[in-house]
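agent: user wants the full assembly modeled, not chains individually. Plan: 1) parse entity lines 2) check alphabet per entity 3) run joint structure prediction 4) return tokens. Steps 1-2 passed, two entities, 746 residues total. Proceeding.
--- entities ---
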Amino acid sequence: MGRLRAITIKEIWALIRDPRSRITLFIPPLIQLLIFSYAATLEVDNIDVGLLDMSAGVHSSEFASRLAGSPNFRTIKRLQSPGELRAAIDRQEVIAAIVIEADFDRRVESGQPATIGVVLDGRRSNAAQIVASYLQDIATSVGADIGPLSRAPPGGSVVTNWFNPSLDFVWFNLPGLLVLIVSVTGLSVTAQSVSRERELGTFDQLMVSPLRTHEILIGKMIPPLIVGLINGIIYLLAARLIFGVPFTGSVALFFFALTVYMLALIGVGMLVSSISQTQQQAFLGSFLATVPVVMLSGFSSPVENMPGWLQIANLVNPAQYFLVISHGLFLKAMPVGAVLAQLWPIVIIGCVTLATSAWLFRARME
Amino acid sequence: MTRPPTFLRFDLRRVSALVVKESVQIVRDPSTFLIAFVLPLILLFIFGYGVSLDASRIRIGLVLEDDSAPALSLAQAYQNSDYFDVDMARSVAVVRDRMVAGDLRAMVVIPSDFGAAVQRGERPVIQIITDGSQPNTANFAAGYAEGVRANWAAAENLESGRAQAPPISLATRYWFNPELKSRYFLVPGSIAIVMTMIGTLLTSLVVAREWERGTMEALMATPVSMAEFIASKIVPYFVLGLGSMALCTVLGITVFGVPFRGSILALLAISSAFLLPALGLGLFISAATKNQFVASQIALLTGFLPAFLLSGFLFEISSMPWPIQMLTYIVPARYLIPPLQTVFVAGDIWSLFLPNIVIMLGFGVAFFALSFRATRRSLD
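--- prediction returned ---
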């Protein structure tokens, strides 16, 4: 126990001795949280569109003014010719251009169905589809006012959004970014702490000391664990105080799950550092592991959108389970049973990675 | 004739010797190989298969509180829909628990008086409840669920008003990407990330290591000038960056079927213009930190994450709050994404390329000036 305490103290000192790395551990994650929780939105707003109105009648003007009045659109660039339209789309000055043909008003007046053409920039196909749906709504509302007969009946369904009634993206982003940033820092701190000693030659000194392998390993697990837990505390406070995101679950359960998740990540980081020779290799290797862990966690796009074989491969990705827990505890008051159902795969992953890295370390020592 | 200041001295023979030394180090170290060739493969793989913003089947629960013929027929309509994988349930409570667990993304409740309402000739109302913790999926689910109901109602002639054609319809055409494949913008975006990793992360690590080990001082004691030193660090990583860009391009076209409608010359010009600020930032970070760990964290924060999140590659810049929009103007990757996407799916549009290239080169000059200063100051 005395040896374990000594190495723990030594590891904590190694982590926080250098003022710059001390700052690097906590300030960048906070900046990331502030910037990216607002930046990462799949909503589309402040849209710039072009309008080529060759009809210039009452109804086409009505469409134009509703477009200008819509909160989603920012500027409406008046276009004079198809050539201008092409140039505006090509240069990405506008994401969509609306073409109202010369006979539009005449057709509406005479009660014939009329069409509004829209050219969209397929380079940004995702945003373009959302813009198209906004334009569709405006066209429907203009059309609904033309004849009282064709007024659409009120919808036959009532939509309720549970857990996040106004579908605020920040409520989704913050629990997700927590997983993402904790994973990135956790993996890099672990990978770095072993390889730095190896590069400086002090790892050999550790090995000739009376410390046992498992004691060295446990000591190495302390710094990333502390960093992860402190970041967890910062995020919980920031969620409540800065972002107004609710935390509906049990705080104790959250820190328990975070600890288990950190141990699994530390196992991955240890695996990487046990096979690398230098800090550079360890860092780049851990980054290489971070990319799929984070990208396939379900934060950037839902896991169920992936092809079946990739979903199976993704079963070994601990971030996938922790993301469900994080969203659940923040927004859904997730009960213990549901949390444990997501936690046991993380426990297995942690056991396998930690055991393998312990074995690799021991094999290297002999 | 005045001699140039010593830090600007430039001898081609000396530079090429240094470039050879640097290149040998690159080839020898497996981690550079990882970043230059394995990372592009992983990223392409993830963006090609793993990340899909295209709508796919959503898992929903269907609570059937009514056994009447119309209720069963609507339930059948949901089960036949291509948008949903439907799990039948008898009570809202059961589905609620599964939504909390993250199993189901939404539920549709067909209430007990549904059939009776149809019989009385009233418009029956269903309830759609989504899991708001995933706002994007929630929006899709609500929209599709209402669509299925509206189509069913129209087919059953419950809503006569809907049957006739709307007076104004929208005819949409998507240029460059009529099939709306998100791969078309994800694959060029992954090239931006790979080049950022090589230019900024790899370079900052390599140079910070020289500082950490003290080989930098040793190098500075030789007749090698600052300009020569920087050139020797840039050339190999520049070539490496272009190499993995080429790898991504070839794989993107052959494996993932992304079109390439522009010219190779334009692609080279755009990529080269971006690699300068990326390398400049890497050099500056290493000169300013002189510590591999700190350099790597700063490189992730200022290089990788902005290229990923603030470049307009996944998230629309115009939708961000304005302080963050302002911040994107100093992210070089912001100027890379539009020309890169254009050269792949649209073609050579030089009126879009040139302003972006000029801005990227401007950033490059600024970063190099900064790293010059940081390196010189630390030697005094």
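agent: reporting back. Confidence is low (pLDDT under 50) at residues 149-155 of chain A. Strands of chain A lie at 47-53, 73-78, 96-100, 114-121, 157-162.
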